[in-house]
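Design a sequence for this backbone.
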C-alpha cells in the first residue's frame, strides 16, 4: 500500500523538522519582539503562492524541458502576485481565522484549476502529482 521510505529520506526529514521546531522555539523565547518587515496578509499570500507554485512545478515534471511551460508559469506567477497584492486584500478585509483560510484555499484551488486548464489546452497534458502531494489510499 505505501512505498517504504529509505533511511536517507527519514534522516533528512528528521533534520529539517528539528531545525524548523528549534527555529520556532528560539525565535519565540529569545526574540519575542521580533517582527517581519511585512504585514501578516503579505506573509499569508506569500506562503500560499510558494506552496501553489511548488505544487504546480512538481505536478508538471513531464513539461520541464519545454521553454513554453516556464513562460506560461512565469506569466501565471505575475498574474497570481498581482491578484494577491491588488485584488484579494479587498475580499479579505474583515475576515479572520477560518473564514480567511477558506478564502485563501478557494482562491488557490481556482488558480490551480485555471493553470491546469491552460496547460491542458496548450500541451494536452494533465498534472501528474508526485507522491508527496497525493492523498494516501
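Sequence:
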Amino acid at each position: 500500500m505505501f512505498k517504504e521510505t529509505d533511511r536517507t529520506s527519514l534522516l533528512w526529514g528528521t533534520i529539517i523538522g528539528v531545525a524548523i521546531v528549534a527555529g520556532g522555539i528560539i525565535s519565540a523565547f529569545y526574540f519575542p519582539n521580533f517582527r517581519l518587515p511585512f504585514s501578516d496578509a503579505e506573509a499569508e499570500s506569500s506562503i500560499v503562492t510558494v506552496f501553489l507554485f511548488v505544487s504546480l512545478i512538481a505536478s508538471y515534471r513531464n513539461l520541464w524541458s519545454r521553454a513554453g511551460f516556464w513562460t506560461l508559469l512565469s506569466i501565471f506567477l505575475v498574474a497570481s502576485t498581482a491578484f494577491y497584492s491588488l485584488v484579494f486584500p479587498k475580499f479579505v478585509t474583515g475576515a479572520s481565522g477560518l473564514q480567511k483560510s477558506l478564502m485563501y484555499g478557494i482562491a488557490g484551488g481556482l488558480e490551480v484549476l485555471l493553470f491546469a486548464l491552460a496547460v491542458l489546452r496548450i500541451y494536452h497534458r494533465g498534472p501528474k502529482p508526485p507522491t508527496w502531494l497525493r492523498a494516501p489510499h
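The radius of gyration is 18 Å.
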